Amino acid sequence: MTWGHDIAPPSVAIPLSRWPVIGVRLCLLAPLVFGGLAILLALRLLERPLFGLRRPITPFLTQGVCRLALRIIGLRLNIQGKPMTKPGAIVANHASWLDIFVLNAADRVYFVSKDEVAAWPGIGWLARATGTVFIRRNRRDSALHKLLFEARLRAGHRLLFFPEGTSSDSRRVLPFKSTLFEAFFTPALREFLHIQPVSVAYHPPQGQDRRLYGWWGNMDFGAHLLVVLAQARRGQVDLVFHPELEVAAFPDRKQLAIAAQTAVRQGFDAAHAAAP
Questions:
Q1: What's the farthest any 2 CA atoms get from each other in the chain?
Q2: What is the pLDDT of residues 203-251, one digit of tens each?
Q3: Does this model's pTM top 0.70?
Q4: How many domains does the chain have?
Q5: Is residue 231 part of a domain?
Q6: How far, in Å, CA of 70 to CA of 132, rounded?
Q7: Cα–Cα distance measured from residue 77 to residue 158, given in angstroms and rounded to the nearest whole number
Q8: Domain that holds residue 22
């Protein structure tokens, strides 16, 4: 299956009656997110010199803020399975900017993202503050990425990758790019590392377009945020934590990528099949 950004996103008109609701939700969401960011930055001034790469305090703040943000946004979080406790990384399908709130609310994770995200207004600031690892999509930097991942994993960070390499319209799981799994097979990591596949499945309020929560292609973030906040009924997102995969049990990155993709796609399909 191929995927192209030439597929037109849904065009949604916001009724005048919903603008007061949008205003209230924005007035609650903005202080929560940016106030939490200010507190997090202040705590990092103490955390960094005391603990270095380790972050024993601030991830709990991030998790609490994201849980409250989902309530304000109007998105119910349903978690199936449990986040692993073994050292390693998480791989998940990627549908929307909402994934940041959803996955942080469920587990204390650190995202791995393309480097251009760091320059995005709003999202980039939040990503940098919460410890996102930014990488360049250039094979010449692969050795540097491996060292960076190893340092973060040995510090106890649970890294979260989106192996699809892009976001989708929330209705499908795209093929996983095996190159993102290469770093897990370094001798320093392979023998102790585990990978946990996670399926993310969004269910819009009844009667709404199935792609409502998807954010892809050239969609404008601000416009999409307003559409999400305008919803009269709550939507739901299912997070399915699958059994972890032992990296050492796989001969190469391609086989590991296939196993992770299969688990994510099966969980995604099952979550949608069970939806009312």
A1: 59
A2: 999 989 899 999 888 888 899 999 999 999 999 999 999 999 999 999 9
A3: yes
A4: 1
A5: yes
A6: 20
A7: 20
A8: 16-274
